[in-house]
Specification:
This protein is largely without helices or strands and about 190 residues long. Helix content is about 0%, strand content about 5%. It has no helices and six strands. The strands form three sheets. A two-stranded antiparallel ribbon has the order 1-2. Strands 3-4 form a two-stranded antiparallel sheet. A hairpin with a 6-residue loop joins β3 and β4. The chain starts with a strand and ends in a 17-residue tail after the last strand.
Length: about 190
């Protein structure tokens, strides 16, 4: 990034400032000769392909396995082959007994539970609230439509719980969310 010395405008590139028009000085290449230090060893670099003269140490064992002669490939008779032989053209016919359609709609829908519901975990029967008073698990209760409840006022069904603004976990107003730690807003 280039910062203009006159107006402090920051811009990614250019030879002059986009705001005030001041020309930036052109970078100059230093023509100073570089001298090597005589006390440093000069290490030539040939791109990693320079030949290195080495001699084998007589004390060390050779651990590299020497390659043997090229042997012809032999078939092992008891080895299971993972590829099947060519079967030729296989006839493909649709299955007559397979139903690929969908069942006809009979129009009957499961009714939403209203009134007192039974908790599926502790079998407690409860008439109001979204959470079980005995074990605290969520009850299979229908939430009222969004337009049915007055905004900002708790209804009898939600029992004062609100959705966390970050992760939408049920949380009491003014308390920290148990999942993400965000503090829920107090009721007005």
């Amino acid at each position: 990034m280039i910062i203009c010395p006159l107006c402090d405008h920051v811009q990614p590139e250019g030879t002059e400032c986009d705001v005030c028009g001041k020309r930036f000085p052109l970078p100059t290449a230093d023509a100073t000769p570089i001298a090597t230090l005589p006390e440093l060893e000069v290490t030539p670099h040939a791109g990693g392909r320079a030949p290195v003269n080495v001699a084998a140490l007589p004390d060390l064992d050779l651990t590299r396995v020497r390659s043997g002669p090229d042997l012809p490939v032999q078939m092992v008779p008891d080895l299971q082959l993972t590829r099947a032989r060519d079967m030729g053209p296989v006839p493909v016919a649709p299955m007559a007994e397979l139903d690929t359609g969908r069942a006809a709609d009979d129009g009957v829908r499961t009714a939403a539970p209203l009134g007192a519901v039974v908790c599926r975990y502790c079998r407690n029967t409860q008439a109001a609230g979204l959470l079980c008073d005995n074990c605290g698990m969520r009850l299979p209760r229908v939430r009222p439509a969004a337009g049915a409840a007055v905004a900002g006022r708790p209804t009898a069904d939600d029992d004062g719980w609100r959705a966390c603004t970050s992760c939408h976990t049920p949380v009491r107003p003014g308390k920290a969310c148990p999942e993400c730690g965000t503090r829920a807003q107090e009721e007005a």
